[in-house]
Amino acid sequence: MAAKLPPVPPTLRSVQHYLKTATEHDGRDAAVSYYCRLYAVQKSLQIDKKSPDAVKFITTLMDHLEQAKKQNADNEAIHTETIGHAHIEQYALKLFLYADNEDRSSRFGKNVVKSFYTAGMLFDVLETFGELNDDIEKNRKYAKWKATYIHKCIKEGLQPQPGPLDEEEQELHGAPSAPTSSYIPPDDRSSQSATAAAPTPTPRTANSVAPTQPVEYTQWVPPSSGSLKPSDFEKATKQCKHAISAMQYEDSATAVECLNKALRLLTTGKE
């Protein structure tokens, strides 16, 4: 659903990038559109919540978000914060992985710039769910810098340097230090070999990754009352989300591994 919003006031011009990303995903990914607009609301309230134009704009945008929630009543990513967090993080990382792989292969173009740029915007949007972890923060800085760097090179007819710059070049161009090559969700390190070189998981055989030892269901004993923390449930939910994603790409080994991690968390309280 495309948002019918009043013009963005001059004081809130900095949120236009997120609104544009939201519009681009209308009809493609309702959760991405929703959280981009929600982030725009949060940023707008921090910038200007007093001027008449800003108040009108923010109010209209909030009304639109409420309508979006009603129209997407069956979308768990919109209605459940932990699932929404995992969805946006995974989506941003897939874009980042695609752009990084193309960049390291010296395949430069508008799609690479766009993917780095959008990934950087979505890493910003993850602030909706709280403080960014170190891995995401590094990815955010690197994605934004790479988008600017490649765009500038193309515009000036120069050949971009693929991958991270060396230390001397980093100082010359003001580039951030490159993150490690495993740009994957922090709770899904086991799928590194499948995701390090492609935007989406590559289908693998059942023997590609040795799954963790399955939980013996017949011997399962419920943990004592109160032994599980809210964070345990959040981590288990994220693992289930990763498992669903893996199944969409027919990656049974990763799906089984993630589900076993979730079961182990819920039955033992340990990762």
TrEMBL record:
UniProt keyword list: Cytoplasm, Endosome, Membrane, Protein transport, Transport
InterPro entries according to UniProt: Vta1-like (IPR044538), Vta1/CALS_N (IPR039431), Vta1/CALS_N_sf (IPR023175), Vta1_C (IPR041212)
Entry-linked Pfam families: Vta1, Vta1_C
Vta1/callose synthase N-terminal domain mapped to chain residues: 14-156
Membrane topology: Peripheral membrane protein
Main location: cytoplasm
Annotated region (Disordered), positions in chain: 159-212
Limits of the Vta1 C-terminal domain: 230-267
Gene3D superfamilies: Immunoglobulin FC, subunit C, Vacuolar protein sorting-associated protein vta1
Top-level lineage group: Eukaryota
Cell compartments where the protein resides: Cytoplasm; Endosome membrane
Gene Ontology BP term (one): protein transport
Feature: compositional bias, Low complexity: 194-206
Record keyword Transport present: yes
A cellular component term, taken from the record's GO annotations: multivesicular body
Similarity-based family: Belongs to the VTA1 family.
Protein known as: DgyrCDS13289
Organism of derivation: Dimorphilus gyrociliatus
